[in-house]
Design a protein that fits this description.
The chain is an all-alpha fold. It has one domain. The protein is built from seven helices and no strands.
Length: about 190
């Protein structure tokens, strides 16, 4: 076991415990609230903007409308989730809610690690600590599953950008030896 395995286990443990403490209803509900909030704000903020433009000028009215719709949608879904969570806690299925919440939290942690791993390997560099990790192959498999949902044209653009990163780094280096001058050898005025 190396440092990568330890970091992965700690992160996954955190996500599991957080999911267990919150329960499945709240875990899924918070994700649903974010999705609904972003969707509603993206699609309906234009309809709210005219009401705010008499009080707020310029682009600030659009920004305020977006934030208002996002927040209202987020809170609306979250209140529904809290009600559903209370209903689940009243019934005898609270243990299942917590257990499945932990599993959902763990799945979120694995997914996050897979996305990070995918981007690291897309840049063409697999650090040595990942090569010797026992858990990295499982994360790599999850990353491959995630990559299957990325459209091919986006993947091509990512690979093209990844090939240009080393060139950009090399071009940004100062010309010359690349070493800082030795202050002891500098002539004093």
């Amino acid at each position: 076991m190396n440092i990568a395995d330890l970091v992965l286990l700690l992160a996954w443990g955190f996500f599991f415990l957080r999911g267990y403490m919150r329960g499945l209803v709240k875990e899924v509900g918070s994700l649903a609230a974010l999705i609904v909030g972003f969707y509603a704000a993206a699609n309906y903020h234009q309809e709210v903007t005219p009401y705010l433009s008499s009080h707020i000028s310029g682009n600030y009215a659009q920004i305020a409308a977006y934030l208002l719709v996002f927040t209202a949608s987020l809170l609306g879904v979250w209140f529904l989730v809290l009600g559903l969570s209370r209903l689940v806690s009243i019934t005898m299925t609270q243990w299942a809610d917590k257990l499945f919440g932990g599993a959902f939290g763990l799945a979120k942690g694995v997914l996050l690690a897979a996305v990070v791993f995918f981007f690291m390997t897309t840049l063409g560099h697999k650090p040595d600590f990942l090569k010797t990790s026992r858990l990295a192959p499982f994360v790599e498999m999850a990353g491959d599953l995630v990559a299957g949902y990325i459209p091919p044209d986006i993947k091509d653009k990512m690979h093209t950008a990844a090939e240009e990163v080393p060139k950009a780094i090399e071009a940004a280096k100062p010309s010359g030896t690349g070493k800082a001058p030795n202050p002891a050898k500098l002539k004093k005025p």
